[in-house]
Amino acid sequence: MGRSREFDENTVLQKAMELFWKQGYEKTSMSDLVEHMGIHRRSLYDTFGGKHALYLKAIDRYSEYSTGKLKSETSRANTAKQAIQYTFDYIIEGNEDRHWGCFFVNAATEMAPRDKEVKEKTEEAFVQTEHFLAEIIRKGQQSGEFSCDYNAEALAEFLNNTLIGIRVLIRASASKKKMHRIADFFLNLVCN
User: Fold this and answer.
1) What CATH number is attached to the domain comprising 73?
2) Alpha helices of 152-192 — where are they, by DSSP H?
């Protein structure tokens, strides 16, 4: 009869996600993971299958986290413009983990060039974000808030690229004033 787990899998996965998010894959050792997660090395292997498999699960966990946060922020908006503004504000001001940047961006720059599974996960995340943003932009175009000079998909790609750039600037400790100026420029560019 096997021993029952002495830890909550979701709790320790959350801890692993935060450590990978903060330090990256290469800088995070198995010893770091064991210590930060508060579990034995054997339990980590038995439950998650090793460092790489745990990293992929941490990316999935971050996907759930970030999608939930983005949808929560935009759901309280009354207009499409406000939804985009809330997205910028959340990324620049409201993310308590902002100094870590975006896990997807971090993974895409650190691991995706040499890891097919990470590349697929980060590409999928960026595509899903673009689809979500395109829906908001389409609503803004239909209501007359946003210009129809460009199609919603092209504007969503541009917006997502802008958001990714801001996440990199956050990690590089750029001023909030600069990031808000970028956000304002985007909104002025697309608004009627």
Assistant:
1) 1.10.357.10
2) 152-171, 176-190
> Is the sign of the CA dihedral 126, 18, 168, 28 positive or negative?
negative
Tally of CB atoms within 10 A around 102: 24
Which of 143, 139, 180, 170 is CA-nearest to residue 156?
A: 139
Positions in the chain short of pLDDT 70 = 1-5, 94-99
Query: Around Cβ 148, how many Cβ atoms within 10 Å?
Result: 13
Domain interval for residue 171: 60-190
Contact 186, 159 (CB under 8 A): yes
* Residue 134 CB neighbour total at 10 angstroms: 19
What radius of gyration do the chain's Cα atoms show?
19
In a domain, 18, yes or no: no
**Total domain count, the chain:** 1
Express each pLDDT in 47-96 by its tens digit. Answer: 999 999 999 999 999 999 888 888 988 999 999 999 999 999 988 886 55
Give the distance, in angstroms, between the CA of residue 102 and the centroid of all CA atoms in the same chain: 5
- Cβ-proximal residues to 47 (8 Å cutoff; 6+ apart), any chain: 5, 9, 12, 39
Q: Does the residue 36 lie in any domain?
A: no
